[in-house]
Amino acid sequence: MKIKNSNFNDINEIFRLYDIAVTYQKERFHLYWPIFKRSLIKTEINENRQWKILIDNNIACVFAITFEDPFIWEEKNIDKAIYIHRIAASPEYRGQNFVTEIVKWAKQYAAVNKIDYIRLDTVGDNQKLLKHYRKNGFNFLGNVMLKNSQELPQHYHNVSVSLFEIKLNNTYD
Asked: Is the domain 2-167 a CATH 3.40.50.300 member?
């Protein structure tokens, strides 16, 4: 299992995994991801913020990162943090503990880049997912109603968002 930056050749597979994730979300929950613009993914690839997990050279999972998330994290956005978004796994590889692998990767990335927090958020009340994040070392900070959700994708509008973070104990020379 390897984590590498996604590239432009991966775009169709990224969207296939997003489509699978949205279908799953629609079957089980009333909130689901919107259709993301290709320009967003291209920007993330250009900025080395779109990632893939490879198993036997096949894309098993994708996720995106950012280094600021002011509309969700508001005043905490001033912290040096890596924000993880849109984890989507291929059904052929589910059950591989990708969140665990992403957390290991993020801790290493954070140490090299002098980052103090790993953060993520989720909307909805998927108790299994919330428990999974806690099991992987994230502290649940609570649910918040966002003040500026109009700046975010539709699935963030008028809903409660669950916030999670891992405070790292990195020491920088």
From this structure: no
